[in-house]
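Listing S7. Sequence submitted for prediction.
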Amino acid sequence: MVELEAFRVFADLKPDSLEKLKGMVRRIDYGAEELIYMEGAPAFGFYLVFSGAVKVVKRSAKGKSQILKIIGPGGLLGETTLFDKGVHNAYAKTLVASTVGFIERGDFFYFLERNPKVVFRFFERLSIEIKSFQNKLAERSYASSKERLARLILALGRSGVELSRGELAEMAGVSSKTAIRTLGELESRGIVSINNRKITVLKEDYLKRLMEPFPAVVDDAVII
């Protein structure tokens, strides 16, 4: 469990401003696999992940799913609709039991008028996230499925987040068969060990050699 001062976008706030912001946060406890918001639903504010892990998923018209990112403690959720006042372009669902805070847009805009440094922190974060998604899009064009899975396995290993093989495939943009086959190969060669959903990296250097550097990282709370 993290507290509000652990969120990077609020790093410049003075104690009195932080206390005012805390009064705007409505905390909600979710169980595992609970929906936080639906794709296409109106957005009335944004969310803060205090504990647990949340996946943000885009579903195609044909029913295929793509996990866009995973948000852990200290990460923001639904912030991309904060300034355009649109609808959510993906849905958010907990992976495990999580505590999430909600801040209503109007209250937050009133707060931003008195704490403009937070606006720059928000735009800094959004800019870094855009770069990360651009890199991931490029990775889809030139990287093999093994490279994509290697990068994701390393990121998951550092965060402690556990995904099913199907979720791993969705996030890496590969088929479930490819994910299962690649994981089996890595396990048989002693690169990783797998116990149910938990993947433990045994030879990190080997996985690093498989992939090209992925320079833009949003922060420790976000996996893209």
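Caption to Listing S7: primary sequence and predicted structure tokens for the chain studied. The chain has two domains: 4-134, 143-214. Residues 143-214 form a domain with the Arc Repressor Mutant, subunit A fold (CATH 1.10.10.10).
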